Amino acid sequence: MLLPPLAGGSDVSIVLQRTIRNQILARLLEPDFDLLAPHLEEVMLPVPRQLERRNRVIEHVYFPDSGFASVVANGQHDRSIEVAMIGREGMTGFAVLLGTDRSPDETFMQVAGAGWRMTATSLREASEQSRTLSREPSVVRACLPCSDLAGSPVKRTQQARRTHGALAPYGARPCRRR
């Protein structure tokens, strides 16, 4: 929920942390939330809004309050598979907190909703100003399933299974059934 602009002609609206349903934003320490709040923009997230494009610079990160986004990995022969879902417990653009500016996957809204967005640059700057933001347990726990770091072996397995059928762990080689 946004409060109206401050008296005195300021265009800045105040975001109230207690009214946000996104679990990452709601659980942040107050000093960390205060770093993000001036940059948060309330947005509608219709289907099929594209939130991240594969191998392109992440311009905005999104914190859904409702609805959910699908993270889709593209495999061989243009086959794709959903590798993660992001709802009000998560955020898109976790790669920004890991120090990169792009993802190998696509993210788009699967079920319409609403939420918050901010520029990736603003998130990066806020995390550099905070000693805890990128290490906040609620942020890391919520985002690890969406991160390339945690998801790579799972993504490779799912892509391989989709392309080649049942495989050994991490898609190493085909299993022979007896």
List the main descriptive attributes of the protein structure presented here.
single chain; 178 residues; alpha+beta; Jelly Rolls; 4-stranded antiparallel beta sheet; 3-stranded antiparallel beta sheet; 25% strand; disordered N terminus
Strand order of the largest sheet: 4-8-6-7
Tell me the name of the CATH homologous superfamily. Answer: Jelly Rolls
User: What's the tally of helices?
Assistant: 6
Overall geometric form = globular
CATH architecture: Sandwich
How many extended strands? 9
What do you see in this structure?
- With 178 residues, the protein is an alpha+beta fold.
- The chain has one domain (23-165): Jelly Rolls (Sandwich), CATH 2.60.120.10.
- It contains six helices and nine strands, in the order ββααβββββαββααα.
- It has helices at 23-27, 30-36, 94-97, 120-129, 137-143, 148-164, and strands at residues 2-3, 14-15, 41-45, 50-52, 60-64, 68-74, 80-86, 106-111, 113-119.
- It has a four-stranded antiparallel β-sheet with strand order 4-8-6-7. A three-stranded antiparallel β-sheet has the order 3-9-5.
- The radius of gyration is 18 Å and the shape is globular.
- The relative contact order is 0.19.
- Mean pLDDT is 77; it is low at 1-12, 145-153 and 166-178.
